[in-house]
Every structure is written in structure tokens, then in C-alpha cells.
Amino acid sequence: MPITSKYSDKEIETILTEMTDVLKKHNVKTDMAIMLIGNMATNVLNHNVPASQRKMIAQSFADALLASVND
């Protein structure tokens, strides 16, 4: 069953493009980009998610990330 998002593909693509443009502007290498994205995810979890739900959401995020990577 496909996952349905409450956000439009257009909204997601627009923001993703802007974020990618910032990384390109600063000539960020792959390892640093991954580090920055991980730090951003940690910051969002720590500042916007109740402590009791953080590990569960982080695990769901990690599982989704692993599932989305092409082997």
C-alpha cells in the first residue's frame, strides 16, 4: 500500500530544491551534506517532538531512509 502524504509533491520538491541549492552554493561535499542533514533531523526531533516519542520517530526515519536507498 503506498504511503499518502499530507504534503503535495510540488511543495516537497520546491523545498528540497531550495535546500539542495544551499548545499551547492557552499560546495558541500557528500559526507558533510549527510552530516548536516542528520544534525537537522536531530534538531527537529529534539525541539519539536516529545521526548517519549523521539526514539520511535528516529527509528521510523532510519528505517524509511534504509528502505529508500538503492542497492
Automatic annotation (TrEMBL):
Q: Which Pfam families match?
A: DUF1414 (PF07208)
Query: This protein's superkingdom?
Result: Bacteria
Which NCBIfam families does UniProt cross-reference here?
Answer: PRK13689.1
The UniProt similarity line reads: Belongs to the UPF0352 family.
Question: Which protein are we looking at?
Answer: UPF0352 protein JQC93_09765
Organism, scientific name: Vibrio ulleungensis
